[in-house]
Amino acid sequence: MDSRAPTTTPDEHTIRVQQLFVAHQNAIRAMVLAIVPDFAAADDIIQEVFLVVTRKAADFREGSNFLAWACAIARLKVLEWRRQHPAGMLSEDVIETLMAEAPYHAASAERSQALVRCLERLAPRALELVRLRYYCGHAPREIARLLGLAPQAVHVALSKARSFLRDCVDRATRFAEERT
């Protein structure tokens, strides 16, 4: 008898994979939210990922990196969603690059969640600039033209927004670390 034969039934394996999804759901959600700025859309994508993870549970090998496997599925779902909703989203190349660097551990997931919360705290004008630059992929000179601003003003405002976001995320993750 092969000692590598599975000791669980397919149904038990599927339940185990679903439990792994639940255990890693916050990290997967944070990764999706870092790319998809719409909370409702991100939740829809997470539900789709869960359905695919469940349907493809037999493809997951116990002992391998579940989070990397689930994030690969999430990446495909984000790209699929982006093709259906191109307005206001990062370009597909940017999404591919960010998802290749996807957070596969809790610390990165906490930073991603903090970034989402910190983006909500940006002033409306700063948020508009950040979205035009990082979600729509416009160059600062193009943003200046679109908004009727001086290019230097766009550079300064984006620099201040990045500084605010960096400090906000650092404070939030430090606070989270101190609580644990």
Characterize the structure shown.
The chain has eight helices and no strands. With 180 residues, the chain is mostly helical. The radius of gyration is 19 Å and the shape is elongated.
* CATH architectural type of the largest domain: Orthogonal Bundle
As a whole number of angstroms, the C-alpha radius of gyration is 19 Å
Structural class: mainly alpha
**Mean model confidence by pLDDT:** 81
CATH fold topology of the largest domain: Rna Polymerase Sigma Factor, Chain: A
Order of helices and strands: HHHHHHHH
Largest sheet: none
Strand proportion, as a percent range, falls in under 5%
**Through-space gap between termini:** 46 Å
Count of all domains: 2
Q: Please tally the helical runs, counting DSSP H or I stretches of 4 or more residues.
A: 8
Taking pLDDT < 50 over at least 5 consecutive residues as the criterion, the unreliable ranges are 1-5
Number of strands: 0
Outline? elongated
* Percentage of residues assigned to helices: over 70%
What is the CATH superfamily classification of the largest domain?
RNA polymerase sigma factor, region 2, helix turn helix motif
Name of the CATH class of the largest domain: Mainly Alpha
